């Protein structure tokens, strides 16, 4: 591998590396050879480097690396810059500017999977790894500076000068003097994936007896048809689904519903807040005729209130309205099976796939997740014992998975639905809209994110005299986040290959983030709400997701007031931008904020202040 060292003072660090097998060292400094050789011990280190076959290059500007190396010799596997400094009494601002230009220069000469190592004195970096930590404005803000050039901080280690044979730090205020490196840190940066390009995407699905296509909402473009549950996938959501299925099959005969479940539902669902649904406009010429839809009614999903019958228009023989939305649940598909009496008593029917729900931006709120729905028909009077058997089996599997991943036994519990109030996460709150719930399945102790499943029995009209249908709906994404120690649900959808590399097929492991201490950028936005209209907060949050490509991690209401005399209402929100998996610089975040403001006026009808 080719290793580039920059800003060497006396070349003692380079000399310590030059003997490593399979490594070609290119050691450089900013000064001329005459100036560099005058430093104590430098001449000896330079001779050692040259004798070992290393390259020694002088007068190298770390901000213009491309100019110093021929095209065929520009790709370095590792770049070291120990204790960079503008010289003399340069302040934090000048040193930040130096690092910014340095990282941009590195991007032109670093191998695709290469690393940039930057050692800084204690406190300079401005990350939580610094102890004590300086105030943000008084640090070099190295992670934010690197993000501007497309790099993420992947590791931080103590810089142990005493373990480097012959190393002696020098260059204090541009002099041949040493400085204190106690508590110094080595920051290791890697390339980030490129920003996503959200081009329009069309998707095909079956609706009734017809194959149709529709345009995917922009906020879901990078999440549609990802194939996480497919047979060749090693994504943790599939592993959890397979482990749960294997555990359940030990207690019940099991049948996977393998047919392709339609992505679209049709109608106006009662009981479900319309602002929580992704409404779809079919591609031109794709809208099926009323006659064809009536013919395909037996196959189409047309429930208006899940678990409480079919669409009112269908019941009354009226034309079917041409309203479509992405499925928010797999429950209607299970109910279609039940109504056709296609369910075998005692056999578990397992349905799985992505479902889509508009929701507020919170740590545990996902606009799309993978649902695993388990349906079981049992004899009347045995439903409670079957529920307990079902839950015990799920709890045993989850306990085994969690203990295998972290070595710690999790707290998996079944909670009565009547005992839960406003502390429900968005997953559980939306499930309540779909019909009555008997129990919540929870992992851990944090009520805001711990609910991962719901248990319910079918509505009265779906029961027979002899049978009761029990169903369990599980949020596989939330389970993956909790079991694998993933701090941000968005990481499940990253396109960075380093995520899946941590999960060999069929295995769950504790996740180690490849983007540490990502910088966050805070902006405020104030606006007047249209007169006489209720402000749709879910639409506001969904627009923030769309504009930022899921880079908004928080939208907090900071102020609300009503103008005396006119009665106009003004709202002020604080918007926080932060990425979990790729570099996000301050300039890009500012551009997102400007775009967000423009889109708010156009789509929400607000007047900016």
Automatic annotation (TrEMBL):
Domain (FDX-ACB) ranges: 516-609
Localization per Swiss-Prot or TrEMBL: Mitochondrion matrix
Source domain of life: Eukaryota
Top EC class for this record: ligase
GO cellular component: mitochondrial matrix
Keywords, comma-separated and alphabetical: Aminoacyl-tRNA synthetase, ATP-binding, Ligase, Mitochondrion, Nucleotide-binding, Protein biosynthesis, Transit peptide
SMART domains named among the record's database cross-references: FDX-ACB
UniProt main location, coarse: mitochondrion
Pfam families according to UniProt: BMT5-like, FDX-ACB
GO MF: ATP binding; phenylalanine-tRNA ligase activity; rRNA (uridine-N3-)-methyltransferase activity
Reactions catalysed, as given in the entry: tRNA(Phe) + L-phenylalanine + ATP = L-phenylalanyl-tRNA(Phe) + AMP + diphosphate + H(+)
SUPFAM superfamilies: Anticodon-binding domain of PheRS, S-adenosyl-L-methionine-dependent methyltransferases
Enzyme nomenclature, EC number: 6.1.1.20
GO biological process terms held by the UniProt record: rRNA base methylation; translation
Annotated family: Belongs to the class-II aminoacyl-tRNA synthetase family.
Official protein name in the record: phenylalanine--tRNA ligase
């Amino acid at each position: 591998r080719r290793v580039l060292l920059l800003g060497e003072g006396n070349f003692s660090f380079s000399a310590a590396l030059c003997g490593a097998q399979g490594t070609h060292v290119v050691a450089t400094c900013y000064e001329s050879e005459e100036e560099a050789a005058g430093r104590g011990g430098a001449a000896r280190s330079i001779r050692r480097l040259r004798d070992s076959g290393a390259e020694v290059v002088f007068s190298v500007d770390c901000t213009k690396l491309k100019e110093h190396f021929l095209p065929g010799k520009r790709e370095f596997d590792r770049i070291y810059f120990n204790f960079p400094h503008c010289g003399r009494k340069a302040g934090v601002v000048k040193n930040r500017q130096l690092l910014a230009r340095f990282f941009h220069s590195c991007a032109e000469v670093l191998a695709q999977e290469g690393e940039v190592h930057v050692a800084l004195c204690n406190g300079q970096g401005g990350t939580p790894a610094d102890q004590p930590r300086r105030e943000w404005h008084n640090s070099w803000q190295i992670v934010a500076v690197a993000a501007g050039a497309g790099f993420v901080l992947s590791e931080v280690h103590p810089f142990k000068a005493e373990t480097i044979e012959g190393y002696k730090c020098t260059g204090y205020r541009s002099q041949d003097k040493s400085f204190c490196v106690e508590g110094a840190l080595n920051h290791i940066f890697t390339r980030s994936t490129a920003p996503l390009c959200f081009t329009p995407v069309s998707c095909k699905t079956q609706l009734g007896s017809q194959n149709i296509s529709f345009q995917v909402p922009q906020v879901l473009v990078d999440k549609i048809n990802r194939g996480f549950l497919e047979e060749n996938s090693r994504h943790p959501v599939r592993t959890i689904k397979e482990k749960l299925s294997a555990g359940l099959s030990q207690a019940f005969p099991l049948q996977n519903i393998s047919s392709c479940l339609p992505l679209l539902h049709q109608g106006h669902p009662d009981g479900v807040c319309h602002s929580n649904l992704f409404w779809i406009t079919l591609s031109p010429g794709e809208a099926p005729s009323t006659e064809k839809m009536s013919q395909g009614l037996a196959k189409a999903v047309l429930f208006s209130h899940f678990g409480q019958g079919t669409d009112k228009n269908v019941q009354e023989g009226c034309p079917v309205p041409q309203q479509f939305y992405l499925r928010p649940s797999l429950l209607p598909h299970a109910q279609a099976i039940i109504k056709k009496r296609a369910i075998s008593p005692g056999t578990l029917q397992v349905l799985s796939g992505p479902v889509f729900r508009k929701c507020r931006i919170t740590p545990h709120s996902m606009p799309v997740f993978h649902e695993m729905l388990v349906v079981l028909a049992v004899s009347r009077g045995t439903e409670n014992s079957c529920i307990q058997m079902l839950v015990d089996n799920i709890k045993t599997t989850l306990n085994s998975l969690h203990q295998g991943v972290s070595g710690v036994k999790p707290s998996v519990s079944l909670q009565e639905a009547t005992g839960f109030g406003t502390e429900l996460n968005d997953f559980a709150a939306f499930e309540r809209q779909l019909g009555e719930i008997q129990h919540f399945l929870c992992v851990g102790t944090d009520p805001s994110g711990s609910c991962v499943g719901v248990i319910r029995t079918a509505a009265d009209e779906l029961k027979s005299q002899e049978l009761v249908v029990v169903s369990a709906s599980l949020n596989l994404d939330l389970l993956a986040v909790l079991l694998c120690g993933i701090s941000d649900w968005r990481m499940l959808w990253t396109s960075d290959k380093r995520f899946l590399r941590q999960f060999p097929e069929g295995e769950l492991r504790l996740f180690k983030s490849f983007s540490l201490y990502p910088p966050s950028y805070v902006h405020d936005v104030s606006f007047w709400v249209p007169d006489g209209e209720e402000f749709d907060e879910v639409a506001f949050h969904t627009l923030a997701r769309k504009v930022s490509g899921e880079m908004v991690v928080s939208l907090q209401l900071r102020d609300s007031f009503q103008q005396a005399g006119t009665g106009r209402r003004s709202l002020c929100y604080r918007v926080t931008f932060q990425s979990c998996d790729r570099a996000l610089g301050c300039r890009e975040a500012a551009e997102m904020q400007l775009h967000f403001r423009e889109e708010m006026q156009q789509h929400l009808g607000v007047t900016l202040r």
